[in-house]
């Protein structure tokens, strides 16, 4: 049985109606002249560098301005007012759910003149009291992640941020209880109905290649996160730009590069591939439509293949006489017999509970449980495959079988992101994410014991 997860997001941002949208950022500040007097009605143009999309606003009577609901990325801010030189601020970085303070001082002069300021934005967060750690796109792209039994997950990167630890259902943020955290993707909740399980939340999220950044908030987060008692994670999906770009990758782990385990007879089968590709840019239809500065796409695919064999450490199956209730040869390593006690003889003697052993360690078959009688024939079908182990010893009982078989854990993820500018104040966003995962046995059967007594759980 396959497990399929589909996420569909359709967001329409109109002017300031989505100020609380958690995946967007804000640029705010005050515009003054050289004497410190505020300047009202100054024109503010905020330009997204990679897409060249402008966002326009103006200062109030108090000289203050706010450019809300901005997609993450680098911006150029142009401030203009008649009788003053144009002020241009470059390298302004906006993060998901973050607020950037950008104050400007305009100099008297001709409007054709401009003053260019690079990277003057204050790094200290002063617009809110929240405590957060942002994981940027560069960190997501360049920090190595261990591909050990599962597809790469942004939760692995979240653990490098302060006040985050644990994994699975014990994943904790800001000292909260395991599982008492919230998660949103592009402003929409990505929590599952399973208690705080990062594995399931990671399954619902897009490929790591489709995430541009994420933010971990541990304190002082906004009212819309009231359900997140211990903290909040905010994921932002990656969008296309005016430049076509893409990637291809394959993270490989193979048993040919592994050492044999200390207790294993041989190196076990372990072959892993985490591979995929991505592509993004402006939407173009030859002779029909050119989406430069207006319409953008970003597509990703990630596949995971995990072929894991049974443990090569010997285990044990009962000898044939055990199925008949004969435990006369059941001995410890020092060859002393392991006594089988009769529970039906349990009694109190001198304030001590005691019971009698079965005579000669033989359990009458009439005493066998009815359910056990149905299961025993399936166990008898499994034979020892290590005949070199001597009978009558501890090894005969516990190290006489070497399991075989492999399990396969294929996972496929694909996502498509579309962004379209209706106007400088209206934009449309669409995200489709599809995930399919399963666990099946290989051609030689599942790892471990075969048949009806197998513990392998396919899904």
Descriptive report:
This protein has 459 residues and is mostly beta strands. Helix content is 7%, strand content 38%. It is built from 5 helices and 28 strands. Strands 1, 18, 19, 22, 25, 26, 27 and 28 form an 8-stranded antiparallel beta sheet that branches. Strands 4-3-6-7-10 form a 5-stranded mixed beta sheet, with no helix packed on it. β26 (411-421) and β27 form a beta hairpin.
Radius of gyration: 32 Å
Helix content: under 10%
Low-confidence stretches: 12-20
Measured between the Cα atoms of the first and last residue, the distance is 4 Å
Count of DSSP strands: 28
What is the tally of helical segments?
5
Mean pLDDT: 82
Shape: elongated
What is the strand content?
35-45%
Q: For the report, how would you describe the main beta sheet?
A: 8 strands, antiparallel
The secondary-structure class comes to mainly beta
Question: Nutshell version of this structure?
Answer:
With 459 residues, the chain is mainly beta.
SSE layout and pairing:
Layout: E1 3-14, E2 25-33, E3 43-48, E4 53-58, E5 64-70, E6 73-80, E7 86-94, E8 99-101, E9 104-106, E10 114-118, E11 131-135, H1 137-142, H2 154-158, E12 164-165, E13 172-173, E14 182-185, E15 188-189, H3 198-204, E16 211-219, E17 232-237, E18 245-254, E19 270-282, E20 284-285, E21 289-290, E22 295-309, E23 347-349, E24 352-354, H4 370-380, H5 394-398, E25 406-408, E26 411-421, E27 426-437, E28 440-441
Parallel strand pairs: 2-8, 2-9, 7-10, 14-17
Antiparallel strand pairs: 1-27, 2-5, 3-4, 3-6, 6-7, 11-16, 12-13, 14-15, 16-17, 18-19, 19-22, 20-21, 22-25, 22-26, 23-24, 25-28, 26-27
């Amino acid at each position: 049985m396959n497990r399929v997860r589909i996420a569909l997001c359709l967001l329409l941002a109109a002017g300031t109606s989505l100020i609380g949208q958690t995946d967007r950022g804000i640029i705010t500040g005050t515009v003054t002249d050289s004497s410190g007097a505020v300047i009202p009605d100054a024109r503010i143009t905020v330009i997204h560098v990679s897409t060249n999309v402008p966002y326009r606003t103006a200062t109030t009577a108090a000289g203050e301005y706010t450019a809300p609901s901005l997609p993450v990325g680098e911006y150029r801010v142009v401030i203009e007012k008649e009788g003053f030189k144009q002020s241009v601020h470059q390298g302004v970085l906006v993060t998901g759910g973050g607020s950037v303070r950008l104050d400007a001082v305009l100099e008297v002069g001709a409007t054709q003149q401009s003053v260019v300021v690079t990277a003057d934005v204050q790094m200290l967060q002063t617009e809110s009291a929240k405590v957060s750690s942002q994981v940027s796109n560069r960190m997501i792209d360049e920090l190595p992640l261990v591909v050990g039994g599962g597809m790469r997950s942004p939760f692995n990167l979240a653990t490098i941020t302060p006040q985050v630890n644990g994994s699975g259902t014990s994943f904790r943020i800001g000292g909260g209880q395991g599982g008492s955290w919230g998660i949103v993707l592009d402003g929409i909740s990505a929590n599952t109905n399973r208690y705080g399980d990062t594995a399931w939340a990671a399954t619902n999220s897009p490929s790591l290649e489709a995430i541009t950044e994420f933010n971990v908030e541990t304190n002082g987060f906004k009212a819309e996160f009231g359900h997140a008692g211990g903290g909040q994670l905010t994921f932002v999906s990656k969008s296309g730009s005016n430049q076509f770009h893409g990637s291809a990758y394959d993270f490989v782990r193979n048993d040919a590069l592994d050492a044999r385990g200390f207790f294993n007879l041989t190196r076990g089968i372990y072959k892993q591939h985490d591979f995929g590709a991505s592509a993004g840019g402006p939407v173009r239809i030859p002779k029909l439509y050119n989406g430069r500065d207006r319409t953008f796409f970003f597509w990703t695919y990630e596949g995971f293949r995990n072929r894991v064999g049974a443990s090569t450490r010997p285990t044990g199956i009962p000898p044939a006489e055990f199925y008949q209730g004969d435990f006369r040869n059941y001995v410890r390593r020092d060859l002393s017999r392991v006594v089988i006690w009769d529970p039906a003889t349990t009694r109190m003697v001198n304030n001590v509970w005691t019971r009698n052993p079965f005579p000669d360690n033989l359990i009458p078959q009439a005493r066998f449980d009815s359910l056990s009688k149905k299961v025993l024939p399936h166990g008898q079908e499994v034979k020892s495959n290590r005949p070199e182990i001597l009978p009558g010893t501890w090894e005969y009982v516990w190290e006489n079988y070497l399991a075989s078989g492999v399990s396969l854990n294929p996972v496929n993820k694909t996502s498509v992101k579309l962004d379209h500018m209706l106007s400088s104040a209206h934009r449309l966003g669409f995200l489709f994410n599809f995930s399919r995962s399963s666990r099946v046995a290989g051609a030689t059967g599942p790892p471990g014991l075969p048949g009806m007594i197998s513990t392998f759980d396919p899904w």
